[in-house]
Amino acid sequence: MVRIATFNVNGIRAAQRRGFEKWLTSRDCDVVALQEVRCPVAALPDGVFGSYHVTYDSGQLAGRNGVAVLTRHAPTAVRSWGAGVLVRAPGDGHVELREHEERGSLARELRAFADEGRYVEVDLAQQPLTVACLYLPKGGLPAHLQDPKRMRETPDGGVKYQRKMDFLAGFARHLRSARRTAAAQGREFLLMGDLNIAHTPTDVNNWRRQQKTEGFLPEERAWLDEVIGPRTLIDVVRQLHPDAQGPYSWWSWMGQSFAKDVGWRIDYQLATPALAKSATSAGVDRDPSREERISDHAPVVVDYAFPTA
User: Fold this and answer.
1) Is the pTM of this model over 0.70?
2) 41-55, 79-93, 164-178, 236-250: lowest mean pLDDT where?
3) Among 3-17, 145-159, 217-231, whose mean pLDDT is lowest?
4) How far is CA 53 from CA 32, 119, 168, 226, in A?
5) Which of 189, 190, 213, 249 is the most exposed place for a label (fewest CB within 10 A)?
6) In terms of Cα–Cα distance, which of 229, 234, 216 is closest to 302?
7) What is the 3 state secondary structure string of the chain?
């Protein structure tokens, strides 16, 4: 059995203060994908990743983004969009730059995101599996849906919306290539992360009210329709919970959203068919109370009955 989790920690230093290390130790995962680590390499808290090997692309935007994959064993290969990635053994302060995608090979739409710390990919040593961690841009509303009276942010004419749509167009091609490369090497492929899109009405509370909200726009959901399929990538949590409302993985800090379970399911594990078929359990580690929350997201944890190499 292989236990794999994805967790948007909303800042690793804040998450550490709120109990991240206790969760990491008690959950005993074989692989953990993290998003919004939001910390320069030099400022990573000592011991926060425990006994795991760390692969981390911090990006170049101070205090933003940052993706990591924690593994029990050193990965056999590492790929990132940025200029370099931290690869560190437990207790080792050594920083090693490992194999990464050349910027010229990235889809044109993704080149503007190369230094933002949004994607890292590793080949596991103990299983024939490639694991990718993604933090997808949140985006915004298209210009025609922007109403200053209903928005907390100043209208931007659809700039953030278009940026996200450009990312989606380029990433669809990148994802297809990564999945096929893994298959050619005899590996299954698993994409994990915060995709900032709720796919179906069962993935968001009060879905009828959310149809003109970023993250649940028809064109965003249509993109997931194209990415997910029985022969490509399968939404593992939804496969095991086909009729459930949720389980949600994100709740606003505001008001009673968490207490009343007014949330969104935007954190995913998308697996190739053979890997997805081996999943035996999947769920969300929802914290007991708002005061005990580690992040505004909750970890999504899946157990796979997947063989070692």
Assistant:
1) yes
2) 79-93
3) 145-159
4) 10, 17, 30, 33
5) 213
6) 234
7) CEEEEEEECCCHHHHHHHCHHHHHHHHCCCEEEEECCCCCHHHCCCCCCCCCEEEEECCCCCCCCCEEEEECCCCCEEEECCCCCEEECCCCCCCCCCCCCCHHHCCHHHHHHCCCCCEEEEECCCCCEEEEEEECCCCCCCHHHCCHHHCCCCCCCCHHHHHHHHHHHHHHHHHHHHHHHHHHCCCEEEEEEECCCCCCHHHECCHHHHCCCCCCCHHHHHHHHHHECCCCEEEHHHHHCCCCCCCCCECCCCCCCCCCCCCECCEEEEECHHHHHCEEEEEECCCCCHHHCCCCECCEEEEECCCCC
Peptide bond into 201 cis (omega under 30): no
Mean per-residue pLDDT over the chain, rounded = 94
- The encoded tokens of residue 122 equal 């590793």
- CB contact at 8 A, 237 and 269: yes
Q: How many residues does the chain have?
A: 309
User: Which residue type occupies 201?
Assistant: P
C-alpha distances (whole Å) from 162 to each of 46, 261, 268 are: 39, 30, 23
pLDDT at 308: 67
